[in-house]
Amino acid sequence: MMYLFLMVVFAIVVATISYGLVQKAKEDINGKVKIRKALKVNLSIFIPAIMAAIVIMIPEVAHAATEGAGASIGDGMGYLAAALSTGLACIGAGYGVAAVGSSALGAVSEDPGILGKTLIYVGLAEGIAIYGLIISIMILTGI
Question: Quick one: 89 exposed, middle or buried, by C-beta within 10 A (0-12, 13-18, 19+)?
Fold first, then answer.
């Protein structure tokens, strides 16, 4: 059953991508309204299909992992937690550095004397990624 569902999801993904490519080739999507409509259609099909595929695959993959390696479900959740803590912290740090860095660049262009102060704020934004990495290491040592 899982393989049938994955084939259906794969067909939906290929259909949405090909729909966008065909519409772009026709140059039918010229206005913002048509682009937004096509994007809404693609995302409303693509994201739920991928999420459903992930949800359906998790129990079978976890069951296969517990049979072969002798690991428990708790270990798998620990690895998932470590990956999420690092990944989300890095995404947040990237967003923070982008916002603070562009503002700092604008401020330094007006007054070059505040370069040191602006670097501190950029460093604080990068610290979020380090905190996520530390939490990941703590989780992985506890597994």
Answer: buried
| Class of the CATH-defined domain 72-143 | mainly alpha
Domain ranges in the chain are: 1-70, 72-143
Q: Residue 30, SS3? A: coil
CA distance 44 to 25: 22
Cα end-to-end span (Å), the chain: 33
pLDDT digits 0-9 by tens, 13-52: 787 777 777 776 666 555 566 667 777 777 787 778 777 7
Rounded CA separation 50/99 (Å): 31
For 47-104, the pLDDT digits (tens) are 787 777 777 766 665 555 555 555 677 777 888 899 999 999 999 999 999 999 889 9
Q: How far apart are CA 100 and CA 132, in angstroms?
A: 19
- Counting Cα atoms < 13 Å in the Cβ hemisphere of 59 gives 4
Closest Cα to residue 104, out of 86, 117, 94?
Answer: 117
